[in-house]
């Protein structure tokens, strides 16, 4: 298990890791395009196009039907068809919108929303930023409006500074949701060489915000009570919900990454006013650093790998000043994964990695270090067979990789697409999920877009040795509902 800093320039480590909601269990980037493999006979996969490096989001203009994608360093591309072949046309860059680390994108009608982060104080500090563009008059020089900026707060030198990222529009079109990830691995002090003394997470990190869709020129501070009074702070205590999506019933779900400890990766049913536990609980397991007598030791604690970046950098340590749990607050647990896939976990009593299928225990929610991204639901019931109206998520990491014969038992599978069958459990007032792998073998997938029964999955790409390698977009054809299947058949004939 290796840190990503072995494969990319150290100065970019924190930025690129945040871009893919990644953690210190990263893996080498592959330069050869491998075709993903369908695990069902009724799913087909084809290579759609090569794209620019550092691709993060893929979205569709709901009015024109055009598909766009964005890159981490601020570019916005429209996919155009030239001589029957898809090509990338750049329409915006960081120089236009001012977001130097672009991680969120969403459409509401003709309005394009972009969100991310700005480096300040000689790259030692950070500001969050969201803007919107009206694309009613074509793509040339669209009008921009600032939705919000934040006050400055400390960035850091780690791989765990996640920043502002995921965007999602409410089903009624009245609100836009945005996630802001933690600036720490597990709530430790990250002072950036003393530049921001005693800085841990704050009101502008590890939370989900909600803004009226027409908001403009807001300035967000680190005053938690004011953010709540203004109605902006929607849910607290989520380490990094790098993607969010509404299900067909209008419930908001988010997938989050845990840190370098062997916590599972959570999926949450996100509800207003709820607190989901970070930094005190991740993956349904207590964060040990909150206990005054904690003395970390990988030799005696199987949840802490001696190769973990946060251990090597001494971010796990005795921490008697760790913030106390908020009094009177009940943490909301994650969705419980009942298998058959992505439900391996480390047993708290034995320290061994076990499969929830064998123990009969639900996991909150996916196996550790798998980086769930690209969450979406079949909200229009366009899919057929057992997929109708269900959810899906991609895992960025895990699975076989070059030069590693025996991966961690927590990540033997990954880089795949999971089918999620959600079921509400009245007894716990929470959801359970049946999780099944349906596609295997992606290379660093970061986002997904469902259009009818066609699914577009975008891969990060990245750079190797200064050379632009770029990624790919894969087009996946899923089973269609009966009406759509007949229409597709008619088009082909």
TrEMBL record:
Q: Domain of life, per the record?
A: Bacteria
Segment forming the signal sequence: 1-26
Q: Which Gene3D superfamilies match?
A: TolB, C-terminal domain
Going by the UniProt record, its keywords in alphabetical order are: Signal
**The species this protein was found in:** Dyadobacter fanqingshengii
Q: What is this protein called?
A: PQQ-dependent sugar dehydrogenase
